[in-house]
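To the wet lab folks,

You asked to see what we're planning to order before we commit. Fair enough. Below is the target structure as tokens, and below that is the sequence we designed to fit it. If anything looks off to you, flag it before the synthesis order goes out.
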């Protein structure tokens, strides 16, 4: 399974459809609000939202939707990133409600090599999030510093820092058979 891309693997115009989607539960929304101390009743108080807002129900806090989409994009976009450099724009264009399923996709807008280090580059992307009915709910653009292939090779390849399992009395090792513990 791919986890991020090197600079050379990005092509301007490429679209990455992030999979799977995520159905947003009331629990997800409330926990995120409480963890981030966003106690607005639009997100937490069903009675308030039903009678005092244009939506008639709780609206999922926008920063959760953004965070969800950012996380969904990691395997396709920033899994190998050196740094997220900038969130250029972030727009919430339609509400998300409890029970909605969010899907995302990212388009590569541009890319350029670093001017200070020859082992990396910057990728400019736009991510959109949309609900199960296709309604776009969130759009953001960001710039991500990603490594070139030579950067990855110098630091351990595709899975740098991954340890090697150590055989012991519970597991004799790959070469010792089918992985059945020995007495």
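Sequence we intend to order:
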């Amino acid at each position: 399974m791919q986890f991020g891309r090197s600079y050379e693997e990005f092509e301007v115009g490429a679209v990455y459809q992030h999979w799977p989607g995520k159905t947003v539960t009331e629990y997800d929304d409330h926990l995120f609000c409480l963890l981030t101390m966003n106690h607005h009743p639009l997100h937490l108080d069903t009675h308030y939202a039903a009678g005092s807002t244009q939506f008639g129900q709780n609206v999922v806090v926008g920063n959760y939707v953004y965070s969800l989409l950012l996380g969904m994009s990691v395997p396709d976009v920033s899994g190998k990133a050196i740094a997220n450099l900038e969130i250029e724009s972030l727009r919430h264009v339609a509400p998300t409600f409890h029970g909605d399923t969010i899907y995302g996709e990212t388009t590569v807008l541009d890319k350029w090599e670093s001017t200070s280090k020859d082992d990396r580059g910057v990728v400019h992307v736009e991510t959109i999030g949309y609900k199960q009915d296709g309604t776009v709910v969130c759009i953001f653009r960001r710039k991500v510093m990603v490594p070139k292939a030579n950067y990855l090779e110098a630091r351990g390849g595709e899975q740098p820092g991954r340890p090697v399992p150590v055989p012991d009395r519970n597991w004799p090792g790959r070469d010792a058979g089918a992985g059945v513990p020995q007495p």
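Structural context that might help your review: Helices lie at 26-35, 41-44, 46-52, 62-78, 149-154. The two ends are 35 Å apart (CA to CA).

Thanks,
Computational group
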